[in-house]
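Example complex used in Figure S2.
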Amino acid sequence: MAIYLKGKGNISPQQTWGDASLLDQPKPAAGNRLACVEPDYTQYMDVRQLRRMSRILKMGVAAGSMALKEANITVPDGIITGTSYGCLEDTGIFLGKMIENKEYALNPTPFIQSTHNTIGSQIALLLQCQGYNQTYTQGAFSFEHALLDALTLLADEPNQALLVGAADEITNTSHTVQQRFGIFKDEHNTLETVNGEGVAYFVLSGEKGPSDVVAITAVTTLYNADEATLSAGIVRFLKDAGINASDIDLLLLGTSGNAAHDAFAETIATTHFANSTQAHFKHLSGEYPTASAFAVWLAARILETKAVPQNIVVKNSGRPVKRVLVYNPYFTKYHSLILLEAC
Amino acid sequence: MEQLMADLKKQIIEALNLKHLKPEDIGDDQALFVEGLGLDSIDALELIVLLQQHYNIKLANPQDGPQIFKSVRTIAEYIQANKPS
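Predicted assembly (428 residues):
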């Protein structure tokens, strides 16, 4: 089944909103961290509403607004969000205050807003959207599960328009903690992996409109798969979608700059997609659990504009791009596949 | 009393993140909720915590909240009347 993209909003470490020169000049990481380029939030909400929101909430509301505006929809029929870490900033504040105040007289706002479902809830509150509202928190499969839920819902009620997206943020505390695992580049290793963050929302419907040009046609996840299982999984995924690997015009690969992890994905790319254009995206988004949402935004933009930004291409087949496969490995355990097609 | 109200205005702005306001923008007798500053029930909880953190006063009866948190002056009067010795 295909679901059609009606609108998209993306706040990322690149200039992915606001003007036509998106991605022309990629912004480099500051050290081993890529932080979002944020808009003026007063364009999207009243200053009195802003005061209580943490950064991820503001990014969520703004990205959701961008997607709805592009889709020309005021209130969606439902909101589905994927987030691995949830609202980390408020979680950090709440836990910090517990220690500072010896578990006495704790401020309610960061506690209330520390839960993962605050992002989808905040969007619903501002829109007065009383429809279906779900948040998926399956680590690096959170966005994929949000998409799978949308596919299921729209199979039943294709005329609905759902706001579907993903959000994850870096905080100083989370960055410090993650750095201790040695997963980002620093002076002690040869990695190129940088920490990333981002919020992307999409308006999706099961009914094709006259101006729709992008469809998401299949989504799957493969957990803890070895190379043979993954290879077979990709073949099966494409076969179920009615195509084979040679039908993929562009492979958008989520390799992160960790040679040991990337070798696995590079082998898959070479084995199955030798005739496809191949491109990377995590030098733009950084590595984070819901980076596949950035990749879907990028794939949709490529299909809309019929142009692949040269700064992401690693192998150019010269083929016109009508079908994009996003293959996003997250470290060695999580592998997801999202198929997008021009329609 | 004047100094206490001035301190309270700064603390309210800080605690409720009212960055668009300066202390002098809040009148001593201005309503804090609904038609006044537009505060809501979550702000009321923050004000209860503010009293605990800054003045070591625990609201004995939450139902008194609407009267106590009516304005900066009523909060200051409550603090003066209930401040631990």
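The radius of gyration of chain B is 12 Å. The CA atoms of residues 33 and 39 of chain B lie 4 Å apart.
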